[in-house]
Amino acid sequence: MRKLGKKLLALTLVSSMAAAALAGCGGSDNKTTDGAKDTQDTAQTEESTSEGSKTSSEAQSLKVAAFAGGNGTEIWEKIKTAFEESHDGVTVELQTSSELDQDLTKEIQNGNFPDVVYYNLGQPSGFTETMLKENAVADISDIFDAELKGRLVDGILDGTDAQPYNDGKIYLAPIFYTPTGFWYNKNLFEGENAKYTLPTTWEEMFALGEQLKSEGDGTALFTYPVKGYFDATIYSMLEQAGGLDFYKNALNYDANTWTSEEGKKVLDTVGTLVSNYLQEDTVSNANTDGGFKINQQNVIDGKALFMPNGNWVIAEMANSTPSDYVWGMMPAPKWEGDTTQSVYTFTEQMWIPADAPNLDLAKEFIKFMYSDTVVDILLNNTTTNAETGAESAAPILAPVKGASDKLAEGTTKDCYSIYNGEGIVPVTGTWATTQPIEGLNLKEAIYGPIDSISTGNMTVDDWQKQLVETWEKCAANLK
């Protein structure tokens, strides 16, 4: 175990130093999820989700390590208490930290492994990805029996964010999820004071951009918190351009991904968006500590109409959002003539280290995360305004069928209702896990050029060439 720990430490440090500026709201650092889709009755017996195991013959201790990000720590205290109450003799040692990757790296280096970890893919440190590359994450496929799978929203276990090796085995449990898309001020597009027509295609999107330019009041079409926020956009655009098979092949580094007509269309469209219609301060803000919030505030203040985001932005920007402001979210536009529209689903993951000392109990805990008890704890989550002390609802949803039905009417419920739209294709997954590749920062290679294209320091052709080279390296090192 010590040998793994030292290797992990070295890889994590390299990953940290090379990571792009994805902090701010990237992943679970700030992403407060609050929703679920589909409508089925969630009233099932707790016995099917761990609460029937109240008879424990001897004392046991379970170490749960949870990232303290946008979701806060209170929900973990409540889940800890609920698990202990439903499992006689079990004590949960809860570790929460905003620097969990660093804390766990040190502990693993000393041979001390937690039993359960809540830390997402896609974080700047690449901690979870490093554990996967080192085969240090346990196979948890047996947790998801037919009964539990039937309880979960369709397709949530099918992507590479649950099956990172694309081998049919589940290593990461998607415990929270939320749809993503382009966020905007609904008051500008609906009601008596509406100024614009909401675009549904890229052609309409760019026409609106030209309209804004002609009006000359300084309002831009688009901004982005940081370049890493294009992950969900590019995922959905790849499916939109080529369909699910094309998308899945792209996640596994198919050689034709970026030279194909479909892949080039994605790159050209993003290039047009950020070259011609970007709010002028976007790149400088995105590369300044905390500047992602300035870019998000620019949407609230009307300096830009759209940005890629998820519904965690509601709580994240609550302190500076006017009381009469109404958030809206739409899928990334489709192209003229498309009959379906992709929506990328962001998930947050929980997993078990391969060297966890209490593997069976750890699996019980993950299964418990899908119980009615936890679903209700998450739905009743609240957030407190740091300035006024006012408490407001900040529901989080597990991917359990029917959970979204329990949401109060409003923006969050509207956000999840996007799945009910005609022709909507839900998309999940992330770039497939590879062996460690010296000198390669995958996210920087994919999303880094977006800043450079925005400023004119790089062309779409340069980006395409870089992606083709990156895909060759990744394909040769697939696990």
CATH 4th-level superfamily of the largest domain = Periplasmic binding protein-like II
What's the number of structural domains?
A: 2
Q: Distance N terminus to C terminus?
A: 21 Å
> Which segments are poorly predicted (pLDDT under 50) over 5 or more consecutive residues?
1-53
Number of helices: 16
Q: Biggest sheet, in brief?
A: 9 strands, mixed
What Rg is obtained from the alpha carbons, in whole angstroms?
22 Å
Give the averaged pLDDT, no decimals.
88
Strand content: 5-15%
Overall strand count: 11
Give the helices and strands, then pairings:
Layout: H1 2-18, E1 60-67, H2 74-86, E2 90-97, H3 100-109, E3 116-118, H4 127-133, H5 146-151, E4 173-185, H6 202-215, E5 220-222, H7 230-251, H8 261-276, H9 282-286, H10 291-300, E6 304-310, H11 312-316, E7 327-330, E8 341-351, H12 359-368, H13 372-379, E9 382-384, E10 391-393, H14 411-416, E11 424-427, H15 442-455, H16 460-476
Parallel strand pairs: 1-2, 1-3, 5-6, 8-11
Antiparallel strand pairs: 3-8, 4-6, 4-7, 4-8, 9-10
Quick summary:
This protein has 479 residues and is α/β, with parallel strands linked by helices. The chain is 38% helix and 14% strand. The chain has 2 domains: 2-179 and 345-418, D-Maltodextrin-Binding Protein, domain 2; 180-344 and 433-476, 3-Layer(aba) Sandwich (D-Maltodextrin-Binding Protein, domain 2).
